[in-house]
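Backbone geometry:
***
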Amino acid sequence: MKNKELDRLMGSVVGFLIGDALGAPVEFAKIPKPVTDFEPAYRKGLKAGQYTDDTQHLIISLDSLIENQGAIDLDNIGKRLIQWYSANPRSIGRTTEQAIQNLKKRVPPEKSGIDHQNACGSLALARLIPYCLYSALVPYEVKLTSGNEKRILGVTHAHKDVARMGSLVNYYIQEMAQGKSSEAVTFQIVDEDNFLNKKYRKKLEQVLDLSQNRSIDPTSAIETIGDSGFVEDIVYSAIYSVLRANNFRNSVLFAANGFGDADSRAAITGSLAGLQYGYSQIPEQWKSQLEDHELLKEKAKKLFDVVNSTRSRFSYSQKIINQIINDN
């Protein structure tokens, strides 16, 4: 694909779906078998190549972002969450359900999220990722702030640990969208003194060390990092999976074969790996077997149209400002 930005954006969106669909059959399975390709997720009632609620939440944000031309509209997101809940979602966690019940009681989306240590899953990150991708490609004036990260996540998941992991995912997306490798971004964060805090950077150092130790197999490494549904375990093990592999395919397979919360981990892995390698480097076999592949490709293209529209708007504004300055 000639346009590298669009290739990365499409890779990130479609990569998320692929990881989700690969991990769904083995999510918290008691006796999981190794993942090599799409398989039916019988416990979830899904056919091979179908996705879970993680991707449904990615779509909610994609649609809201496109409809609002890049603006964050929490009321619109809240309405879409209620519609999704009313349409028999494929699965739903307790935290998300409680938050949507709050929305149905007309609690504002700024206050509907659950702020509790036991309410720190990763589902809200699926809604954040489209905003991160948009922000990574638009002018500096409309970059995603930490405050807006919290607002988007907080519609359902309002705990500070979720917000911190949202900031970490956004950092990776911002840098990788410009062509940096996951390894370069990781070294960059570890060497910084003012991003997150020492505890989180130390955890990232462990992830980096494990990814460079080829004597430890990926499944064991992910178990060491943490394979639970807690947001920190999911994000760090996803970053490990991208660091450990040298292509898209291996990244998502490493993530899915970490078992535990396999679909959420592999979805975030697929989004980051898709951003690094691009849509053009995703195996064609997986694209052809993936549910709603063409639909999500089109949504990614529409998001890129919004990016270009935003760029044009700011370019025109800057041109007018420069003209006024020159006239004076």
User: Anything to note?
Assistant: Residues 164 and 196 are 7 Å apart (CA to CA). The mean pLDDT is 92.
